[in-house]
């Protein structure tokens, strides 16, 4: 059985459940007191409900095969031996950044260079930094050249630590920045340590070993899960436009569609003959084209300009490409055959 870890509670739990439900893999928690659930559509897999930080650790250790967790947690707890391999790098939720927050009262400090100059000045005391991301904080301070600092480990309510006198500044996750500002903290230029979003990750050794054994269950589940997610994420970014256009032939309609920069579709538009009602004129064609969300209104305007009418806009649930570039990249990374 393939073990897949997801967050056990909170907003990221709900968002992960929603993603899995959207790809036809509903999470079924039979007993709220247990930490194991089933996954509809993937009978050879089971869900393990875990704390987000433990997901990165357990994927690293191989206790679970796959996991949904943030970039920040992989960087902090994923180890340095590359045992945690990225399968899908951006699931389009839980976006945030790991950043340095300093008091607003430090009005002479606007950049990380300003902070380095102040902290490294002779006689200045060591900078006390509250964080639970000790590994990332150490790497960041070494990179920017802050020599005198002391890490204060805190697992929650970091924003209050500066007002309590526990720390001088913090290193924590920031999304909108509202919580920072409400606690009289600010970010500085150059103070972002990393950008984070939720990812699908896996254990390198487990994935590689599964391909060498007679039981390719892990490989099969991983590929199917990845391709379902890829198709869904791609589909959410697209719309299907359908319109009627009068023309002398399919070629005539195609040439007019070719004049629009947003009407190329994924592999070109679909053009089909409309069967006219009895005693009506012929020469009407139905056009279908897939466009991105960003180009929706431009594409609708171009369709109208070339004579399109009755333009319908439909959501796209999935877009499955001929092959999965991420799957091929994963196999290459694992030094495995594409077959």
Description:
Strand 3 and strand 4 form a beta hairpin. The radius of gyration is 26 Å and the shape is globular. The protein has 339 residues and is of the alpha+beta class. It contains twelve helices and 17 strands. It is 34% helix and 28% strand.
Which structural traits does this protein have?
28% strand, 339 residues, alpha+beta, seven-stranded mixed beta sheet
State the distance separating the first and last CA atoms: 22 Å
Poorly predicted runs: none
Instruction: List the strand order in the largest sheet.
Output: 2-3-4-1-5-13-6
Discrete helix count:
12
Outline type: globular
Structural class: alpha+beta
Give the integer mean of the pLDDT values.
92
Percent range of helical residues: 25-40%
Largest sheet: number of strands, sense, barrel closure: 7 strands, mixed
Secondary-structure element series: EHEEEHEHEEHEHEHEHEEEHHEHEEHEH
The count of β-strands is 17
Bin the strand percentage.
25-35%
Q: Radius of gyration, Cα only, in angstroms?
A: 26 Å
